[in-house]
Each structure stands twice: as structure tokens, then as C-alpha cells.
């Protein structure tokens, strides 16, 4: 019996020892839909040499992928560790492709990757997520049960300060653990919120830049440039080094999934989207996205919202006219910890800023759109979907309609929730679900 146990333990040891963080999928450097899809696979290990190999299952057996690369992150309190990265290539669009990871010739991990779909797909969106609460865990489970093809987190990815040490305990176990092994099979995308960027006194903050792998096609900002995430020299050096070219550039980017173009904006207070450099990138990106059937903008700070909390943080409003000009359909935000949906809106700002107050201006509200019988929106629908785990804001407003802005159509802050986007050709179905899978809101949009 003892011998049997010993043998069993020896067999399990390689797999248990191999990872500090098990392999997880990212879109990597693949902004556009491809004939041969690819995904990045990342994992974390102790700071020790080992022979790693990733294989993808093809029609005639396992195919070895190019050797993984790695960077070291040495930012206390975690011990120095390695972030490995490999690219899974030549994936059939939309296929579920088995892959495996070998260490020293032994298979230590197996899963199947969902390659990007060229057409109909389900994207799940939520924000303000990994604070280690039971509500975060319940939403994670419900998200997995809803079977997304990909997940987008609208910022405040990890609390309290997006630290490497917090990713280890609050993020990866929730979305890539044994209970919810989701991030190993579908790519997670995200945008940094105010809790995900460099922070004074915390050397392992801003781990977003080291741990995520997303397209580096945003504004060509270098460290120290106006509008770039401001890292403190001598404090954030380790994270910046481990991030390589991702810092600070990965804060904004764009990508396509199916026939949807996503423009992802860093809305943190240091990023002034009125500046010529950032504005030129945004216009060029939206102009080049006219091929897409749908255009979505995702960012952390909402342009329009009704919660008493963070009322003053609506500084991104002056972008509305340019988003309207290029036919953006939906703006998805977080920051405010609840769910809100507006009527289709057009907005003319009276002036840009100042920051710290909702930017004033004039609204044109599409009163006819109801998402049921009238489904063509004249204007942009703005969603706050920041109820992914962190403590909810202003639950009393759920039933206090008089406290909502006149263009807010739904406001739910008495429970945590997430957004399901089912996009099929010229129809987009949007649903808001709670942790029990109950439907809180639903609209259909058509073109
Ligand atoms: Fe936030």
C-alpha cells in the first residue's frame, strides 16, 4: 500500500512541481482575424532552468511549437519567478485544438485552446473583478458555465493594486484553477483600470504589463511620454523589465473577434485623449475599422453613468463625437461597481474637461430604441459592467429611478453580474446575467 502511494506521488510530482501559475491563453500579437489562427500561451515557474516544449495536436499527431521564451520578474514579496511564453500556431479558426506542455520530455499539462472564430461567437465581459471575494468566485463560475469563446475584463483586473502577489492569490486561482479552468481554454483580454497601473510604494504593482500578452498596436508611447503609464524609476524597474516592449504600450490596443472590431483605450487620468498623438491613433484605428460589422470601444472609466459613486470620473465624454463619427455601436466600461445601460446617445461636449467633473454638453437621446421591437440604435449604447466581484456601489439606486440620469435605461446594483454578447452577422444580443444565471437585462441590436 505504502509502495503504491509512493509510486502515485512520484507520478504526480512533475505536474505539481512544474508551475507556479498554470498555462493560460492570451490573444498575443494577433490583432486581426487570420486564416491560420494563433494564440499565446503563458505560464509561471520558479526561477530555474528546465527544458520546456509546447505541442499542438494536428491531423497527423502532435506538432512541436517554436521554443518558448521567458522573462524573469523579481519584485518582492514574491520570490523571483519566470514568465514563459509560447505561441500556438496554425490553429483552424474556431476549432478547439488540444495542446500539451512538456517539461524535460514529460507531459505536465494538457488542455484544449479555443481558436478565434471568424463569425458568430460569444464574448463575456465584466470588470472590477479579482478582489478575492466569494462573489468574484461565483461570477467566475457562472461565466465559465455560460461557455464564452473569449472573455474581456474592463479594468480593475486585480485588487487592491494589480500586484504580482495579488495575481498569484486572487486572479489566476479564480479564472484558471481546478474549479474554473477557463483561462487555459479561452483567451482572456483586458484593459488596465486605475488599480492596474504603477502605484507609489508598491514595486510589484502594474503586473498587468508583465503577465498579459495583447497586441502592441496602440499609440507608440515610450516610458515617460505624456499619456503613458508613469512608472517610478527605482521602484517599478523589475515590472518594467519583465514587461519588455509591453510597457507602456500595451495599455491601449485594438483587435478583431469575428466581425467585431474592438478599440481598447487606457482611460486612466494620465492619458489625455485630447492630445494630438492619442487622438490621431484613435481616429486612424476607427477609420481602418469600417470593414467590421460592429465596433465596440472598451475602457475602464465610463463616459456616461448614473451612480453617485465616481460621478466626477466621466472625463472621457469628449471622445463621444469621434466615436459617433466612425459608427461605434457600444462602449463598455467598468470602474463603477454595478450594471448600467443607457439609451442610444449622441453627445456634444460644451468644453473639454476640466477633469474631476462630468463634462457638460448636449445630449440627443434615441427614445425609440427599445432593444425588442426597435433594434436599430441611433447613437451609442453605453454599458457599465463593473459588477464582476468587488463590493457593489449605491445599491439603493437600483429602485430609485428618480436618481438616474434621464438617459439611463437600466441600473442594477443589488447583485453582481456579467455581460454576454452573442454576435451573429448583423445581430448582436446583449444579456446581463447574475451568478445564478438569471437574466437581469436583455436587448437585441441589429444593423
Ligand atoms: Fe476603477
Characterise this structure.
The protein is α+β, with helices and mostly antiparallel strands and 447 residues long. It folds into two domains: 2-114, Sandwich (Immunoglobulin-like), CATH 2.60.40; 121-446, Metallo-dependent phosphatases (Purple Acid Phosphatase, chain A, domain 2). It is 17% helix and 32% strand. The protein is built from eight helices and 23 strands. A seven-stranded mixed β-sheet has the order 12-13-14-15-19-16-20, with helices on one face. A six-stranded mixed β-sheet has the order 11-10-9-21-22-23, covered by helices on one side. Strands 1-2-6-5 form a four-stranded antiparallel β-sheet. Strand 5 and strand 6 form a beta hairpin. The mean pLDDT is 95. Residues 156, 193-195, 300, 335 line the site of fe (ii) ion.
Query: Which geometry do the CA atoms define?
Result: globular
Q: Structurally, how many domains make up the residues?
A: 2
Structural class: alpha+beta
Radius of gyration: 22 Å
CATH architectural type of the largest domain:
4-Layer Sandwich
Q: How would you characterize the largest beta sheet?
A: 7 strands, mixed
The name of the CATH topology of the largest domain is Purple Acid Phosphatase, chain A, domain 2
* CATH class division of the largest domain: Alpha Beta
Mean pLDDT score, rounded? 95
- Give me the number of helical elements: 8
Order of strands in the sheet with most strands:
12-13-14-15-19-16-20
- The CATH H-level superfamily of the largest domain is Metallo-dependent phosphatases
Amino acid at each position: 500500500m505504502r509502495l503504491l502511494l509512493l509510486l502515485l506521488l512520484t507520478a504526480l510530482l512533475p505536474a505539481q512541481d512544474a508551475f507556479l501559475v498554470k498555462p493560460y491563453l492570451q490573444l498575443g500579437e494577433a490583432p486581426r482575424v487570420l486564416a491560420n489562427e494563433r494564440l499565446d500561451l503563458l505560464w509561471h515557474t520558479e526561477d530555474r532552468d528546465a527544458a520546456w516544449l509546447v505541442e499542438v495536436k494536428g491531423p497527423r499527431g502532435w506538432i512541436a511549437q517554436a521554443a518558448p521564451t521567458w522573462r524573469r520578474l523579481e519584485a518582492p514579496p514574491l520570490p523571483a519567478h519566470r514568465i514563459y511564453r509560447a505561441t500556438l500556431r496554425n490553429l483552424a479558426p474556431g476549432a478547439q485544438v488540444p495542446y500539451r506542455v512538456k517539461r524535460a520530455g514529460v507531459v505536465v499539462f494538457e488542455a484544449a485552446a479555443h481558436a478565434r472564430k471568424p463569425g458568430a461567437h460569444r464574448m463575456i465581459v465584466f470588470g472590477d473583478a479579482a478582489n478575492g471575494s466569494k462573489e468574484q468566485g461565483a461570477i467566475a463560475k457562472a461565466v465559465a458555465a455560460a461557455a464564452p469563446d473569449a472573455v474581456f475584463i474592463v479594468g480593475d483586473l486585480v485588487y487592491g493594486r494589480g500586484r504580482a502577489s495579488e495575481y498569484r492569490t486572487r486572479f489566476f486561482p479564480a479564472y484558471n484553477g481546478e474549479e474554473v479552468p477557463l483561462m487555459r481554454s479561452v483567451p482572456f483580454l483586458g484593459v488596465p483600470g486605475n488599480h492596474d497601473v504603477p502605484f507609489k510604494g508598491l514595486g510589484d504593482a502594474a503586473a498587468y504589463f508583465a503577465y498579459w500578452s495583447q497586441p502592441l498596436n496602440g499609440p507608440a508611447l515610450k516610458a515617460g511620454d505624456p499619456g503613458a503609464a508613469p512608472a517610478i524609476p527605482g521602484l517599478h524597474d523589475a515590472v518594467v523589465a519583465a514587461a519588455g516592449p509591453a510597457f507602456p504600450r500595451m495599455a491601449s490596443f485594438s483587435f478583431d473577434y469575428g466581425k467585431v472590431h474592438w478599440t481598447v483605450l487606457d482611460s486612466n487620468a494620465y492619458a489625455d485623449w485630447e492630445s494630438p498623438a492619442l487622438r490621431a491613433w484613435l481616429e486612424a484605428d476607427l477609420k481602418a475599422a469600417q470593414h467590421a460589422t460592429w465596433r465596440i470601444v472598451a475602457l475602464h472609466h465610463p463616459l456616461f453613468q448614473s451612480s453617485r459613486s465616481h460621478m466626477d470620473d466621466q472625463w472621457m465624454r469628449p471622445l463621444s463625437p469621434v466615436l459617433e463619427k466612425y459608427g461605434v455601436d457600444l462602449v463598455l466600461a467598468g470602474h463603477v461597481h454595478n450594471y448600467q445601460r443607457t439609451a442610444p446617445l449622441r453627445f456634444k461636449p460644451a468644453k473639454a474637461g476640466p477633469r474631476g467633473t462630468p463634462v457638460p454638453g448636449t445630449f440627443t437621446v434615441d427614445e425609440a430604441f427599445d432593444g425588442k421591437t426597435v433594434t436599430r440604435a441611433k447613437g451609442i449604447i453605453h454599458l457599465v459592467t463593473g459588477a464582476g466581484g468587488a463590493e457593489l456601489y449605491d445599491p439603493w439606486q437600483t429602485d430609485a429611478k428618480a436618481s438616474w440620469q434621464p438617459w439611463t435605461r437600466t441600473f442594477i446594483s443589488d447583485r453582481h453580474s456579467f455581460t454576454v454578447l452573442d454576435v451573429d452577422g448583423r445581430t448582436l444580443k446583449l444579456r446581463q446575467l447574475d451568478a445564478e444565471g438569471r437574466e437581469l437585462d436583455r436587448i437585441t441590436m441589429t444593423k
